[in-house]
């Protein structure tokens, strides 16, 4: 899929979390040039968690592109235009 998207010049990225990436790929590090959007539900809209702890780093990425920082499966529901929505952040 990555090869096909690249060949067709289609923009794409990878969405994952450290635990998912490591479990599914064995922490493959050859895709770290692709934009990465990671999930860490700490309710904080910045990348400090990624930069300050190896716990959240994966796949050889140095700089993430986006972060999903709030998931509405958490105890406190948040709505956007009356829709139950996850919160994402991008600088």
TrEMBL record:
Domain of life: Eukaryota
Keyword Signal in annotation: yes
Family annotation (InterPro entries): GH, GH25_Enzymes, Glyco_hydro_25
GO terms for biological process, alphabetical: cell wall macromolecule catabolic process; peptidoglycan catabolic process; response to stress; signal transduction
Keywords per UniProt: Signal
GO MF annotations in UniProt: lysozyme activity
Record family assignment: Belongs to the glycosyl hydrolase 25 family.
Protein name according to UniProt: Uncharacterized protein
């Amino acid at each position: 899929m990555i090869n096909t998207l690249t060949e067709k010049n289609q923009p794409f990225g990878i969405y994952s979390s450290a635990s998912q990436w490591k479990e599914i790929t064995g922490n493959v590090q050859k895709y770290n040039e692709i934009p990465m959007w990671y999930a860490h539900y700490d309710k904080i809209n910045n990348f400090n968690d990624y930069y300050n702890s190896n716990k959240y780093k994966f796949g050889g990425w140095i700089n993430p592109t986006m972060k999903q920082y709030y998931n509405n499966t958490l105890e406190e529901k948040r709505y956007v235009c009356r829709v139950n929505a996850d919160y994402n952040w991008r600088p």
